[in-house]
From TrEMBL:
Species name: Acetobacter farinalis
Listed name of the protein: MBL fold metallo-hydrolase
One Pfam family from the record: Lactamase_B_2
Signal peptide: none
SMART domains: Lactamase_B
Domain Metallo-beta-lactamase: 39-232
């Protein structure tokens, strides 16, 4: 199994729009360090048999897929329905044309209903043989529990993202937790024994909807993953600073980081 970090930035990316010259707001991030350039948070899970699962379709998804040569998959998993995780849904029309079928969109009933209110035309039945629009089929899944996506078992777990819940996922000994500020005890139990955990860490100071560095380090002591990788990072999280200050076993993601893990069991 291969996991590609397509994007590891917060909702506005890094740099954010604006700045004195109109070329971006970098905050504490060095603009001359390429690994500080962050598109919106997303990952792609590629199984050894070719099965692929895209996690979220943010506004940068077209460029992300092109950058990594990803053009064929049949499943999308949605962690939640905020715009920085769904706004690129139209772009999967190109994938429809490659695989010649509708894609399956997985998420909680609430998440899928909200996405359908914004992209109702995408969920209309396909009229073969052409794709003049993106076409996906809704497949509701629970907020927590085991599900089968693309023939593989994933363990979903509940997360608090401030005012709304979001879904974390575990796939074999890999786990992904974007947009999370609190984890209930039962979710910590799902994460027990995980080897590699990619987790939200928006900034150094406390935040109402996103984990921050101290909280993530507390989780590390509880869960004890071998490798903990920070994602969904804002302009507070400079690459060089993290290289110099993060403790052993904790590292920063960058757009394009690729992780290799054993394939999980098939469902």
């Amino acid at each position: 199994m291969k996991v590609i970090i397509l994007g590891c930035g917060g909702s506005a990316g890094v740099p954010m729009l604006g700045g004195e010259d109109g070329r971006g707001i970098w905050g504490d991030c060095d603009p001359y360090e390429p690994r500080n350039i962050r598109t919106r948070a997303s990952i792609f899970i590629q199984m050894d048999d070719g099965e692929g699962i895209l996690v979220d379709t943010g506004p940068d998804v077209r460029a992300q897929l092109l950058a990594h040569g990803i053009s064929a998959f049949k499943s999308i998993f949605y962690t939640h329905a905020h715009a920085d995780h769904i706004a690129g849904l139209d772009e999967v029309r190109g994938i429809n044309r490659v695989v010649q079928q509708p894609l399956k969109a997985y998420g909680t009933p609430t998440v899928l209903e909200e996405i359908q209110t914004r992209f109702s035309y995408v969920f209309k039945p396909w009229t073969p043989p052409h794709f003049f629009r993106a076409v996906v089929e809704a497949h509701p899944v629970p907020l927590a529990g085991d599900v089968v996506i693309g023939g593989y078992k994933l363990s979903l777990f509940e997360q608090s993202h401030g005012r709304i819940p979001s879904s974390g996922l575990r796939c074999g000994d890999f786990a992904y937790s974007t947009d999370v500020v609190e984890l209930p005890e039962r979710s910590l139990q799902v994460l027990s024994g995980v080897d590699t955990w990619v987790v939200d860490c928006f900034q150094k100071q406390p935040h109402s909807a996103h984990a921050w560095l101290e909280r993530v380090l507390e989780w590390k002591e509880q869960i004890k993953p071998r490798r903990l990788i920070l994602t969904h990072m804002g302009t507070d999280m400079d690459w060089a600073w993290m290289q110099d200050n993060l403790p052993e076993g904790v590292e920063a993601a960058w757009d394009g980081l690729t992780l290799t893990r054993p394939d999980p069991e098939r469902g």
